[in-house]
């Protein structure tokens, strides 16, 4: 199996709930164990942007997402925002990679400054301090100087900043195609197989001068 077997997936209150849900589905299909975190704001955005309304309690949410994605029992683990005993809160138990998608600029700022006011921020802090893979997918426009400075700081710490900005060279026909572009880029960074998006030049055999 290529790529990490255990991944922390966090969703925060920026627009783009479809990215997080699609990534969750892909990780489940690739038999990864997903440690799922979501902010209250992200739940509100999700209900606005999709037809998915998550239960409030972690246990009920875990059961819902397991059925929604067709995951095996225990494959998705959901933790509350102050569950400090969860594996993601410690370097000794945290997965090898973490993705925050979508990543609000407030969460971006908190991670950049080392704030640990909730489990999402703590999990990201653990990922950075343990020198593990942290992928942040901000969805904001335009970016302020503060946003850009925070991204630079995080990039210098080793995080990957992957803006939710789909390309068009694959000639997307639907919104799902645009979502898949960003999710495929995340999976490529994680070194997890994906068949949603061909790599640039993958089917290129050269042209005559």
Automatic annotation (TrEMBL):
Flavin prenyltransferase that catalyzes the synthesis of the prenylated FMN cofactor (prenyl-FMN) for 4-hydroxy-3-polyprenylbenzoic acid decarboxylase UbiD. The prenyltransferase is metal-independent and links a dimethylallyl moiety from dimethylallyl monophosphate (DMAP) to the flavin N5 and C6 atoms of FMN. It comes from Pseudomonas inefficax. FMN binds at residues 13-15, 39, 104-107, 116, 139. This is Flavin prenyltransferase UbiX. It comes from the Bacteria. Keywords: Flavoprotein, FMN, Lyase, Prenyltransferase, Transferase. HAMAP family: ubiX_pad. Dimethylallyl phosphate binds at residues 169, 185. Pfam families: Flavoprotein. It is an enzyme of class 2 (transferase). Belongs to the UbiX/PAD1 family. Its EC number is 2.5.1.129. One of its GO terms (molecular function) is carboxy-lyase activity. InterPro entries: Flavin_trans-like, Flavoprotein, UbiX-like. The keyword Signal does not apply. The lineage of its organism: Bacteria, Pseudomonadati, Pseudomonadota, Gammaproteobacteria, Pseudomonadales. It catalyses: dimethylallyl phosphate + FMNH2 = prenylated FMNH2 + phosphate. Residues 6-189 form the Flavoprotein domain.
């Amino acid at each position: 199996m290529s790529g990490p077997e255990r991944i922390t997936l966090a969703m925060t209150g920026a627009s783009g709930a479809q990215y997080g849900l699609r990534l969750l589905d892909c990780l489940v299909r690739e038999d990864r164990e997903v440690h799922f975190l979501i902010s209250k704001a992200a739940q509100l955005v999700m209900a606005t942007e999709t037809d998915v309304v998550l239960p409030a309690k972690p246990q009920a949410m875990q059961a819902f997402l397991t059925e929604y994605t067709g995951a095996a029992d225990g494959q998705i683990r959901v933790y509350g925002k102050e569950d400090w005993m969860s594996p993601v809160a410690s370097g000794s138990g945290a997965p090898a990679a973490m993705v925050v998608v979508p990543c609000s600029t407030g969460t971006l700022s908190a991670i950049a400054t080392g704030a640990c006011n909730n489990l999402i921020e703590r999990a990201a802090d653990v990922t950075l301090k343990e020198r593990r893979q942290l992928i942040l997918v901000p969805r904001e426009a335009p970016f302020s100087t503060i946003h850009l400075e925070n991204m630079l700081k995080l990039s210098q710490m080793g995080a990957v900043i992957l803006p939710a900005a789909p390309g068009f060279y694959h000639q997307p026909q639907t919104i799902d195609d645009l979502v898949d572009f960003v999710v495929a880029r995340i999976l490529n960074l994680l070194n997890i197989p994906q068949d949603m998006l061909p790599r640039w030049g993958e089917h290129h055999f050269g042209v005559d001068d």
